[in-house]
Amino acid sequence: MSCCNRRCGLIAGAVFGAVVAVLGGILIPVGDLIIQKTVKQEAVIEPGTTAHENWAAAGAKVYRQFWLFEVTNAQEVLDDGAAPVVTERGPYTYMTRYLAKDNITFHHNHTVSYLLPNGAIFEPSMSVGTEEDKITSLNLAVAGAYSAIPVELHSILETMIKTSNSSLFQRRTVKELLWGYHDPILKGAVGFFLDYNNTYDGYYNVFTGKDDILNVGKIDMWRQSRSLGFWNDKYCDMLNGTDASSFPPFVDKKEPIFFFSSDICRSVSASYEETVNLKGIDVYRYSLLQSTLASPVDNPDNKCFCSNMKTTKNCTLAGVLDISSCQEGRPIYISLPHFLHGSPSLRTDVLGLNPDEEHHKTFLDVEPTTGFTLNFAKRIQVNMMYGPSKVITVLKKVKDYTIFPLVWLNETATLDDETADMFKKELMSRIQMLEIIQQVLLGVGLGIFVLCLIFYCVVRRSHNQSKLA
What we know:
Layout: H1 2-43, H2 50-56, E1 62-71, H3 74-80, E2 86-96, E3 102-106, E4 111-117, E5 120-122, E6 134-138, H4 140-148, H5 154-163, E7 169-173, H6 174-179, E8 181-183, E9 188-190, E10 200-207, E11 219-222, E12 257-261, E13 266-278, E14 281-288, E15 320-322, E16 332-335, H7 346-349, H8 357-360, E17 363-366, E18 373-386, E19 402-414, H9 417-468
Antiparallel strand pairs: 1-2, 1-19, 2-5, 3-4, 4-10, 6-7, 8-9, 10-11, 12-13, 13-14, 14-17, 15-16, 16-18, 17-18, 18-19
């Protein structure tokens, strides 16, 4: 009887272990469903959700660091047609994106519109000098007017240059070059980022994800239009993805992510590079591919971004994007800093540039479960073009069209320690706890089941042997 009780107890124990193990196994898909449901609820952009709270506010501090390029051989360029030699000065750092989204309006079609206020506050402690530091840089009015007027009118520009006592290069303060100054040639204000302060980016109209979480944050319209209208091409004028501040949850690292940047007037994609630990949180690092600014020869998709045959060497030049069509005709060329991934000729036409993948690439660190961008570095270089002229004195020695680097910026933000701790506590710890419970139940259940089964076999074998004896 006692042997029977032992065997019955072991069988019951094995059954109990199996039940516990099965419960642990069931919790895996059930737990995943719970996590997915919770994340989907909190990722929707609507009042009361975590996504809305982070999305509507100014959020983490965003900084723009500027490195300005100073010409060290200006006279040799004018007198001998030498290639300009530049050295970078910086960083000069400003806090930007410190204002919350404005004019937030929810619509019936599950979209929400808003404006992004622009503003910049100088941060002396994060800068190498003051805004009054002087830099010898390209004369924006001369380069701009040269690009804007036909060759037949060069004599007029020559008169304007001489009358105003101007030259191809000028010496200005950092503040003047970045935010604007009164130019004697144009009789108006010019600057790298003229009219940035007290302006807005947008309107943006994005999907809330209420009807389909896979669309959350994706741009529906920008400036009241679903097409950019800058490139006269359906493909290049497409608005793809989000504004890069977040992406739909449950990110698949095998797939690229898409986002639109008004700074470069186009949509781009980024691909998974590696998994990085950011303050205890695993994030996917995405970076722009070299093909993003490749010439149409290497990337035919970029054909519609090439508009000027002369300055792009018949569309064979890689690494620069002419955005004059979205800059009210101002001849602005965008590239990665130091012409990273650009044609070698860009760095022989202007000397002193040293591209470095680590310091000059653009990347985003995206938390894969929520799709939130927790850290990023957007690096862009602003350039202008000038070329030869038989009439304009300061350009007579110039041998060929030159794309000249003015400034490169690193716009960056990362979550602070407090936000990281909150993120880990509110989301990651719950997911980890659920996973631990799943593993413990599965492990303990299997352990009990196996042990009871072993002991049952031992007891039964012992009982059979005693019967034979």
